[in-house]
Backbone:
């Protein structure tokens, strides 16, 4: 029933949708009272909210008409790290593919797993979930989007099955994170909870959450196999442009490029874990990968340059969407109404039982993810508020952190202000409205499961 309802919903182009959210945010700066908490710097040098210090400001500093338009270029500059990362990854991947390596390797994988899409979905989702739950990987998946889509198209599936496998795994991994340094460890630190504690309960949650996710994607894949016209993107040309075409035979140079690419990805993971590399270092790594792959793959300088430029140019629209998504939160920060929104949401939880409060925290964190899509940023703003509220209502700080994780992680799969999601959808050529029809029912299932998990945590005294 819900799927039929979503199929009748007409959602505008993603850019139109994001500009609409930006207009709503701009309007909110003139309606919502400006307010602020006192901020302090913690031992790690991070700015965090001081609970109990919220005050409404005397003057309403609503954003001007000029700011409505200038916030977009400012946001593009603010999000330049991920924007240039997306462009560079697109260029580097185009160089690797120009060598014929990706097509040749995918041909081999297709021969091996062409009759086992369930194995691909299960194994792929578990892999993405595991990497996100431990290393906090997200932006790093962007390079794999085109590869996975091409593989699924060759298996007579569609782009949504491919991106569903990736994004659902990534979202669940963030939601039930074991050691995610960007969300879990930050939230536990801010809430004064022992780093990495409570892992047993979270590990137990991975199984049912993954089971629900795999079932949802696999059931959709079965419908596609039975009738390709059931695909939500069957009439979207951009989602069909990742066909492998004629699959070349594997040659020595392909193995060499594969080795270079795998080594690059290994260095990527090592750099993240060992040295805390982020977008600047990772972007530089992909530039090196493109150069070495072109050399090993025996591409000429001109051919490599053309491939890189074409790959980057194809993602210009995606880069624009990322910037506009950042503008929504930025305009609310400038007008000082973002803290008011957080305070109002937290205040609603100051009543009810511990079970109601825990589920309420999940709801608040889920909604706030629309305006604060950064997991670390959301932790800094909300955990100093949620933890004391939980103390008053009999909700342990560990449960407050779990509510934050689930609300932040799961909503990453659906909120259009998440630049990683918009980047992946842009690469795959999936319009946001089609993605919404696919992911909407799953989000409701996972949120219901999250509510049960939080109630269970209260009952067992999870701390």
Residues:
């Amino acid at each position: 029933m819900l799927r039929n309802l979503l199929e009748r919903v007409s959602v505008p182009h993603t850019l139109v949708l994001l500009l609409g959210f930006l207009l709503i945010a701009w309007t909110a700066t003139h309606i919502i009272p400006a307010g602020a908490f006192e901020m302090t710097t913690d031992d790690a040098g991070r700015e965090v909210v001081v609970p109990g210090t919220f005050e409404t400001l005397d003057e309403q500093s609503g954003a001007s008409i000029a700011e409505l338009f200038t916030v977009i270029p400012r946001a593009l500059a603010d999000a330049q790290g991920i924007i240039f990362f997306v462009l560079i990854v697109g260029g580097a991947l185009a160089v690797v593919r120009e060598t014929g390596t990706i097509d040749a390797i995918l041909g081999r994988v297709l021969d091996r797993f062409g009759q086992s899409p369930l194995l691909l979905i299960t194994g792929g989702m578990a892999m993405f979930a595991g990497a996100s739950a431990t290393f906090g990987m997200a932006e790093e998946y962007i390079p794999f989007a085109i590869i996975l889509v091409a593989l699924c198209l060759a298996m007579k599936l569609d782009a949504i099955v491919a991106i569903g496998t990736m994004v659902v795994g990534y979202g669940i991994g963030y939601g039930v994170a074991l050691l995610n340094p960007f969300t879990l460890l930050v939230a536990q630190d801010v809430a004064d909870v022992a780093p990495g504690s409570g892992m047993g309960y979270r590990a137990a949650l991975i199984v049912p959450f993954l089971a629900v996710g795999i079932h949802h994607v696999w059931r959709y894949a079965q419908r596609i196999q039975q009738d390709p016209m059931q695909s939500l993107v069957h009439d979207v040309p951009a989602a069909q442009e990742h066909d492998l075409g004629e699959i070349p035979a594997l040659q020595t140079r392909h193995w060499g490029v594969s080795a270079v690419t795998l080594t690059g990805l290994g260095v990527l993971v090592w750099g993240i874990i060992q040295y805390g590399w982020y977008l600047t270092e990772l972007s530089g790594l992909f530039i090196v990968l493109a150069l070495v792959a072109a050399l090993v793959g025996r591409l000429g300088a001109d051919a490599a340059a053309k491939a890189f430029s074409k790959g980057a140019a194809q993602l210009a629209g995606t880069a624009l969407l990322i910037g506009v998504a950042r503008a929504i939160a930025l305009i609310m920060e400038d007008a000082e109404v973002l803290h008011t929104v957080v305070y109002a949401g937290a205040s609603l939880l100051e009543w009810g039982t511990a079970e109601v409060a825990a589920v309420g925290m999940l709801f608040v964190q889920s909604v706030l993810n629309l305006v604060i899509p950064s997991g670390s940023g959301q932790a800094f703003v909300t955990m100093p508020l949620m933890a004391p509220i939980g103390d008053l209502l009999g909700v342990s700080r560990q449960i407050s952190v779990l509510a934050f994780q689930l609300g932040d992680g799961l909503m990453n799969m659906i909120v259009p202000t998440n630049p990683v999601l918009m980047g992946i959808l842009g690469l795959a050529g999936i319009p946001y409205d089609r993605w919404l029809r696919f992911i909407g029912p799953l989000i409701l299932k996972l949120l219901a499961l999250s509510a049960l998990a939080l109630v269970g945590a209260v009952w067992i005294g999870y701390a």
Observations:
- The mean pLDDT is 81.
- Strands lie at 35-36, 39-41, 47-49, 55-56.
- Residues 105 and 250 are 7 Å apart (CA to CA).
